[in-house]
Amino acid sequence: MRLSKMATAMVAVGSILAVSACGGGESGGGEGDSFSIGVSQLVQHPALDAATEGFKKSFEDAGVDVEWDVQNAQGEQANATSIAQQFASDDLDLVLAVATPAAQAAAQAITDKPVLFTAVTDAEEAGLVDSNDSPGGNVTGTSDLNPVEEQLKLVKDVKPDAKTVGIVYSSGEVNSQVQVDLAKKAAEGLVVEIKEATIANSGELAQAVDSLGKVDAYYVPTDNNVVSAVSTMVQAAEKNKALLVGSEAGQVESGAAITRGIDYTKLGEQTGEMALKILQDGKKPAEMPVETSSNLELVVNPKAAEAQGAEIPQKLIDEADNVIE
Prior knowledge:
Layout: H1 2-23, E1 34-41, H2 46-61, E2 65-72, H3 77-89, E3 94-98, H4 100-109, E4 115-120, E5 139-143, H5 148-158, E6 164-170, H6 174-190, E7 193-199, H7 205-211, E8 217-219, H8 224-227, H9 230-240, E9 243-245, H10 249-253, E10 258-262, H11 264-281, E11 291-292, E12 296-300, H12 302-307, H13 314-319, E13 322-323
Parallel strand pairs: 1-2, 1-3, 3-4, 4-5, 5-11, 6-7, 6-8, 8-9, 12-13
Antiparallel strand pairs: 10-12
Helix pairs in contact: 2-11, 3-4, 5-6
C-alpha cells in the first residue's frame, strides 16, 4: 500500500514537470506552442489588410498554432473602443492593433497583457509609448513612418513644372498630421506649395478635394479615411489632370501613379517576429524599442499617370520594383 502511494506521487510529480516543460513560462517555448491572439484592425483597405496578413504569416512560418480573433472597427473609433474593451476581458495571450486609432483604444483599455501595434506613424506622438526607444509599458510595435520627402520628390520627378500639391487628411489622426508637417517641410526645398484640407470621415473626401481648387498634383498620406476611399482621389486626379502620388503600393494598384513606400506585408511580418519574442522568449514590450521598416519599394502605374495627364519617365519605370500594368 505504501509503495502504491509513492508510485502515485511520483507519477503526479512527473506530470507537473512535463506540463511545466511544455508550457513555455519564463523560459519561453518553441514549435508546437499554441496561443490565443486578438487583432483589432481599424478599417479594411489594402495596406492594413497586408499588415494583418503579414503578422499572421510570421506565426505560420514559425510553425506556431494560433487561435485568432480578428475584428474590424469599420473605421469607427467607437467600434475600436468596444473591440479593445472586449479583448481586455477575453482570455488572450496578446493583442495586435492595426492603425493608430485602434492602437490608442487598445493601449487605453488593455493593461495586463502585451499589446503590439503596426501601421502607426509616430507611437510617441500618439501617446502609445513613453518613447520610441524605451516604450516603458505593455505596448510596443512597428512604425510605418513614410519617407515623405522622397515621396513628394516624385511629384517633381514626373512633373518638373509642378507648383502646387493638394493633401487631404483626417483631422483626428495624429499620424496624418505628422505626415503633413513633414510634407510642408519637404515642399520648401522642392519649391512647391502645399494646399491642405481636413475631413472627419471618408464621406467628406470628395467635398474636401474640391475645396483645394486647381493643383498640379495630389499626395495621399497613410491616412485611413482617405486610403479607404482612395478611388475618390483617383477620380479627382483624372478629372483635374493632376498627378496622384501615393504613400504605399496598394494605392498605386488602386489607381495612383507612383510611390516609393513601405511593404506592409513585410511590416506585419516584422511585427509578428516581435510578438514571437514576447510569447516564446519572454521578452517584455517595455524594453523593446519601436521598430521601423527599411523595405522601400518604387511602384509605378504608367496607365494611371497617363489618365492623370502625366508621363512617368522611362528611368523611373526601369528602376521600379513593380510596374502595374
